[in-house]
Design a protein that fits this description.
about 270 residues, 7-stranded parallel beta sheet, 7 strands, about 45% helix, globular, Sc_DH/Rdtase_CS, oxidoreductase activity, acting on the CH-OH group of donors, NAD or NADP as acceptor, NAD(P)-bd_dom_sf
Amino acid sequence: MPDDPLGIFRLTGRVAVVTGAAGGVGRGCAEILAAAGAYVVAADVKDATETMEIVKARGGDGETACLDVTDKAAFDELTADVAARKGRLDVLINNAGIQRRSTALEFPAEDIDAIVAVNFKGVLFGCQAAGRIMLEQGSGSIVNIASEAIDRPAPQILAYAGTKAAVRQMTRNFAIEWGSAGVRVNTIAPGWMLTPLTRQLNVAGEEGAATDEESLRTRMESRAAMSPLGRTGRPADVAYAVLYLASDASSWVTGQAIRLNGGSSMPW
């Protein structure tokens, strides 16, 4: 046992890119990785300035980047630029995602295309862009954020669930191909939590309707009741799991899916 067993979680000197970092889970991941010592690039199609202000106010370091994950060339350019300036790229958190709802029978083609572009292609492009750098340097950890929807069917989320299941399988393929080169690829499949993405849904799970605090409280209580632990998730719950997978503490972990859902689904 080393003198400092918790030191294995430290990321001092490492460089991480987090997508979808302007808020919610992405912001939580950026904060905890920076707190562990990583230089964090908070990337988002939205302005991630507030995230970086929080990171730096807590003693961390990093920068923001405007990134549309559906743009493969932009993803390649971002990772190459970060690696050139910082000398390395150690961690990628593929967190950016969108949700649109419809019945399975009537799901609009344009909504399916949008979800596939962000949730599937965006993750694929990220893995490819970061993977090229990590394979050359002989080390790296990629964490793809999926959803408990990979195990738990629900109405009106056909396209979302399908892309998240594809992310799970994509993770396994990259892990198989890249493990011998020292690059690990894992998935986290979170359960329901309050984020900007889920806040836009009302108690019936319908998107676009304004959610008052009463219906939001009812929705959270119903979700909490699904868990043996009796609560919904928090972005910090995902962030700490991300820290584990990004750090050397998980050096023998690849191709896995961590079901971070309070026990609301147990597929095994």
